Amino acid sequence: MTKPPLYYIDSSFAVPRLTDGLKATYDLRPEPGPGIRAVATHGSTGIDAATMAKLPDLEMIAVSAVGVDKVDLAEAKRRGIHVTNTPDVLTDDVADLAIGLMIALYRNIPRDDALVRSGRWASEGMPTLSRRLTGQRIGILGLGRIGQAIAKRAAPFAGEIAYHSRHPVADVSWRYAESAMVLAASVDILIVATPGGPATDKLVDATVIDALGPNGSLINIARGSVVDEDALVAALVEGRLGGAGLDVFAHEPHVPAALLPLPNVVLLPHQGSATVETRDAMAQLVLDNLAAFFAGQPLLTPL
Length: 303
Fold this sequence. Notes:
It comes from Sphingomonas montanisoli. The protein is an alpha/beta fold. The chain is 34% helix and 13% strand.
């Protein structure tokens, strides 16, 4: 498949374009409105109540992502609009990336790669030592599909795995922590894998970050909104947090300038699901949900 969902949607459905040529701002046009029964959107774009109001016949929203925090779910529910997402198909890739960020951060892979590429290895000699990952205590904030996949991958590295979710998860052996604060205070690495949205906005605040401390590290592959970004930047700049591996940010694609020169930070442009295989599977699931909707059949992945 290897093309964006819109390419395949065009070939299967009547598609009035609601985006202005995939511009960086993804500004939605006010027209066309009447007659549109379904909208396909990306998780980072979503659809708000104002846009839904311009679509009086809207019955279904297909989101090409697992996260739906940019969709006004309350308005969709009020109007009886069905919402689907693309869970499961991206779980493995996001979990893999969390492990990759952890290894890259602890072993200084980006720094050492830059040293070799710049030709400075010969003149500067060996870089400063990195840190051992094996044996570190790893905490996972949010033990859903992705959180559990991360825990299974992290098990060979970890001295201990602990987690915090809204409730203890049945049939897992990992230690449950009563709060994000308790979890952060008891681990060396905190991996954020919880959904975005109002319920988790700035869940990782200054107190949680300080509980991790100057020897702790934060990995975020969830949503930028889950972490108080100002508090995170301040802690990293001031040395109150040991390091961070970030795939998501509060105001994407904008990244705080203060993070860019920091050697103890690994930064990625929201690449969790960005593999050919997973993006193909996500596109197919969007198409399958749309096809089911228009055929009057049960949706595959309704919220």
